[in-house]
Amino acid sequence: MTKNPDNRRHFVLTVRCETGPGIVSGVTSYLAEHGGNIVELAQFDDKITGQFFMRSVFNILPDSTCTFNQIRTGFIELADRLGLEWEMKEADRPTRVLIMVSRFDHCLLDLLYRHRKGELNIEIAAVVSNHLDLRPIVERDGIRFVYLPVTKQNKPAQEAELMKLVNETETELVILARYMQILSDPLCRQLHGRAINIHHSFLPGFKGAKPYHQAFDRGVKLIGATAHYVTADLDEGPIIEQSVQPVDHAYYPEELVALGRDTETSVLTRAVKLHAEQRIFLAGDKTVIFK
After folding, report:
1. How many CB atoms lie within 10 A of CB 152?
2. 91: closest CA among 26, 6, 182?
3. By residue range, what is the domain housing residue 232?
4. Which residue, 75, 206, 227, 250, has fewest beta-carbon neighbours within 10 Å?
C-alpha cells in the first residue's frame, strides 16, 4: 500500500445529505472523539437544491484505541441520526478499473504510463477492445486483454459479456479511452456513476468521422475535450473535467488532430484521478468536485 508523507494510513469520508445544522460539527466531533485526525476538509452547501456535500481525509492518531473498522462501524449511528449518505474508505486502496479502447492509442498509453509511475491510484483489471490493434501494447504491460468485437447483431450479447467481466473483476470504474462504440441505454444505466468517457468539444459539435477535419473546414478558434460520466443521453452526462486550446487559421487538420490528442489525454487522466481519489459527487445532471 502506498504511504502518505507522514507515514500514516489515510482514510476518506464522503458525506451528502439535506442541508441542516450540526452536520459538520457532528462529523468532525465524532472523528476527533475516536482518534481521527482530520488533515483535509472540504464542503459545499448548494443553496438551489438544498443539498450538502462534504469530503474529509483523516488518519488515526497513534495513541487511539480505535481501529478504522471500529470507526466506520460506529459512524453508522451518527449517519442515521443526521440522515447522511456516506462512504468511508482507505485513501490508498487502488480503484479497480477496466479500460475500453478501439484503435486510438493515445489515451490508453497515457493511462498505462501514469499507472506504471504510480501517478494514478488505480489497479487495471483488464483492457477491453472491439479491435485487436492495441493488444500488443496492453499485453506488453502484463495486463489482461479481452477482445469483444461488436456488430449490430451481437451487441446485446457482447455487452452482457462486458458486464460479466465487470462483475468478475470487481471493477469499480470503466474508462472509455476513445472507445468508438455507443453503449446501449441498459448498459449505461448499469454503469451509472462508474463509467467515464472522453470526447472532443467543439462549437459546432461535430459528429461522425474526422471531427478535427470538420473543425478545420469551419474555421474553429478553440478546440477542447470533455470528460464526463456516461449516461443514456449520448455525450450529455455529468461533466467532470474540460479543457480548451486556442487555434487559428494557421492550424491544419493534422495539427488540430495532434493538439486534440494532447487535450483529450490530459483531460481524461485528470478525470480518472479525481474519481479515484473520491473527490466527485454526482448531483443530478451535474457534479460537485473538491479539487
Report:
1. 6
2. 6
3. 95-289
4. 250
Taking the C-alpha atoms of 219, 223, 229 and 234 in order, what is their torsion angle to the nearest 10 degrees?
A: 10
Which of these ranges, 87-96, 165-174, 205-214, has the smallest mean pLDDT?
A: 205-214
Residue 98: CB atoms within 10 A of its CB come to 22
Residues 6+ apart with CB under 8 A from 217: none
Q: How many domains does the chain have?
A: 2
- Among 90, 120, 153, the domain-final residue is 90
- Would you say residue 65 has pLDDT above 70? yes
Q: Report the chain's mean pLDDT, rounded to a whole number.
A: 94
Q: Return d(Cα 90, Cα 110) in angstroms, integer.
A: 25
Residues 159, 33, single domain; the answer is no
Do 142 and 274 belong to one domain? yes
116 and 23: one domain? no
| Alpha-carbon gap, residue 276 to 122, rounded angstroms | 7
The number of angstroms, rounded, from the C-alpha of 184 to the middle of its chain's C-alpha atoms is: 20
The answer to whether residue 169 sits within a structural domain is yes
Half-sphere exposure of 7 (CA within 13 A, CB side): 1
Angle in degrees, 0-180, between the axes of helices 211-218 and 253-276, rounded to the nearest 10: 120
Look at the pTM and tell me if it is higher than 0.90: yes
Q: Which residues are tagged catalytic?
A: 235
